[in-house]
Amino acid sequence: MKKVIGADRGSWIRVERESDFPVQNVPFGIFSSEGRSARAATRIGDTVIDLHALAMAGLLDGLGINPSVFSHDTLNPLIGLGKALCRELRCRIAEIFDQDNPVLRDLPGKHAGILFPVREVKMLMPVQVGDYTDFYSSIEHATNVGIMFRDPANALLPNWKHLPVGYHGRSSSIVVSGTDIHRPKGQTKADTAEFPEFGPSRQVDFELEMAFITCRKTDLGQSVSTAEAEDHIFGMVIFNDLSARDIQKWEYVPLGPFLAKNFGSVISPWIVTLDALEPFRMPGPPQDPPVLPYLQFEGDHNFDIRLDVFIQPDGQPEQRVCHSNYKYMYWNLVQQLAHQTVNGCNINPGDMYGSGTISGPTPDSFGSMLEIAWKGTRPVKMADGTERKFINDNDSIIMRGYCIKEGLRIGFGEVRTRILKERE
Ligand code: MN
């Protein structure tokens, strides 16, 4: 079945040249507008399209999708219908909004209740995240951390090139872009101190990540192969995995990340489908030594997604601190899902899988303040004269991501969060 909406297709909805959301994107999200409950939507340009209203107007008839699927406050029921049906839905949406299709374009009073300016709606969490895993799949990031905290000569631990290292995170604290997060409190211990102290973290950091979301249920005991994995992956969002480095440093031995990682992780509101990302596939870095058979794969599963991180101090302009790319990932998403399930661990629609911090080869492409300011030894100079080793109170962190090729731009919009002082 055709996955890609033709690159030459235009829409009767206005799309600015720099927009992340041409008619070729058709992402999915959940929104609310004044006086109406949350429901499913897509977006073209700066226009949010109410899919429940579109279905009630009969425009999605014949797809075999019950309109009630669009009236939930999560996309879990919709994406749980599977990729084949969602693919047909995307194609139908592209048809309805094709510049030459008069059906809705020329319908009297057509906009009322179906189309909303993006500035007039509130975007909500797109899925209910049942389970959340965070990987550690960027070789540049893992190497940087290894150099900083262990041994430059043996920066990668012996397992790193043999399996996609990960941990099970917490889903309750995954929130949508626009949610402010209070500085976490917890235990920290200075290297020179005998005992730990309690107080607000002094080292709040971001982690630039992408996350993929699964759309199929598997049974306990079942494994998903690398060949099958993309049938289970609905799409991706940008993921800011906020981290408290000082809490992390003290608590993580021997069981790994805990309270340093679950005080808020922030995602972009629109799930961009793998189908929309199809034109931007590319090979990943070579994997040497060769991986075990269950991690081998056919085809290209990296994507050329340009990623930027900005810090915006209160009342100041935003300042870019990182320019990275998802294409650097050493372990790709089909390997991650195959590894997640190789032992028979079951998965569900709405589960989320973070890539791990996405660092590139050069210092301007490092995906966390820990690396950018190199453990505080290379502070970043801000336009207002202040310096940043980590994130200050009232700083906003903004991440944006998009693909571009031969004039076609498909993007994720942004994920934005402000760090507030600790809660009293
Ligand atoms: Mn992370």
3D architecture notes:
- Helices cover 17% and strands 27% of the residues.
- The protein is an alpha+beta fold and 424 residues long.
- The chain starts with 28 loop residues before the first strand and ends with a strand.
- A hairpin with a 2-residue loop joins strand 25 and strand 26.
- Strands 6, 7, 8, 13, 14, 16, 17 and 22 form an 8-stranded mixed beta sheet that branches. The chain has a 5-stranded antiparallel beta sheet with strand order 4-3-2-1-5.
- Manganese (II) ion binds next to loops.
Q: What name goes with the CATH superfamily of the largest domain?
A: Fumarylacetoacetase-like, C-terminal domain
Largest sheet: 8 strands, mixed
CATH architecture of the largest domain: Alpha-Beta Complex
Gross morphology is globular
Fraction of helical residues: 10-25%
Radius of gyration: 22 Å
- CATH fold description of the largest domain: Fumarylacetoacetate hydrolase, domain 2
| Distinct compounds present | manganese (II) ion
Outline the low-pLDDT stretches: none
Topology:
Elements: E1 29-32, E2 39-44, E3 47-50, H1 51-56, H2 76-79, H3 83-96, H4 102-105, E4 115-117, E5 122-124, E6 132-135, H5 139-149, E7 166-168, E8 174-176, E9 181-182, E10 185-188, E11 197-200, E12 204-205, E13 208-214, H6 226-232, E14 233-241, E15 243-244, H7 245-251, E16 265-267, E17 272-273, H8 274-277, E18 281-282, E19 302-303, E20 306-312, E21 319-325, H9 333-341, E22 352-354, H10 369-372, E23 380-381, E24 387-388, E25 396-405, E26 408-420
Parallel strand pairs: 6-22, 8-16, 9-26
Antiparallel strand pairs: 1-2, 1-5, 2-3, 3-4, 6-7, 10-11, 12-15, 13-14, 13-22, 14-16, 14-17, 18-19, 20-21, 20-25, 23-24, 25-26
Helix pairs in contact: 6-9
Residues 134, 207, 209, 241, 354, 356-357 line the site of manganese (II) ion.
